[in-house]
Input
Amino acid sequence: MNGELKIISGSSNLALSEAICDHLGSTLTPCLREKFSDGEIRIEIQDNVRGCDVFVVQSTCAPVNFHFMELCLMLDALKRASARRVTAVVPYYGYARQDRKVSPRAPISAKLCADCLTVAGMDRMVTIDLHAGQIQGFFNLPVDNIYAAPVLLDSLRERKEDMVMVSPDAGGTERARAYAKRLNAGLAIVDKRRDAPNQAKAMHVIGEVKDKICVVMDDMIDTAGTMCQAAKVLIDHGARDVIACATHPILSGPAIDRLSAAPFSEVIVTNTLPIPEEKLKCGKIKVMSVAGMLAKCIHNVHTESSVSVLFV
Output
């Protein structure tokens, strides 16, 4: 046995951590999270964790570097407090898009972050919908990359008639195909060419979308350029309705303005990242909770049960 189960939350998504505890019938272990006057982070675990099986819930979302450093300090504190096993539950893994060298003198940031978390004291990681599945290989320890598909599919099943799952680029085709198979829906791909970082130009559609309900699938919505370009092209090709669907609502920069102006009837996301109230005022965003799924994964890891039941 791995000792008593304890859940500790970072500051990035406290509401999700509390929802996970509600599903588990547990409470959050108290933890002091403060800033010193010079901006350095102060962490102190305020309960005994010696011999315990500890899960630290922290999405490395904006401000990314602050939340990442906070997670590292929490892992180090737990290691030094003699926790038997420490699992980082990182619903959204930041820096995942920097998973390879794209120019001669560039870092592989996703690998460096993996090394930092490992050195800090992590024994295992749980995450949702990694941007690139091969990032699991950056860690020399177990990584459970579970999928938000069951949660997102629940919001789509009720309107699957005449539905087409659309990948906004060629790289996301496998994801869109997996959803299309489960919904017995059609599949289309938007041919996209990116001119610069965070700028995308959609070109044309591969597949039949005329008079269909098109669901544009992606793993994340950042500045929403890709999504909105795809929506415009789909409407131009005769789509009856367009819905955006993504796991991670980063929603940075002009994302909300773009989504509000785009021809989406609905934008379906999960709560892997917190969405400020002012961003929800656009009226299109529907948030699905992954708390139950993460709670089940934590329970199975703690009890040494199979986690593969969540890999759908």
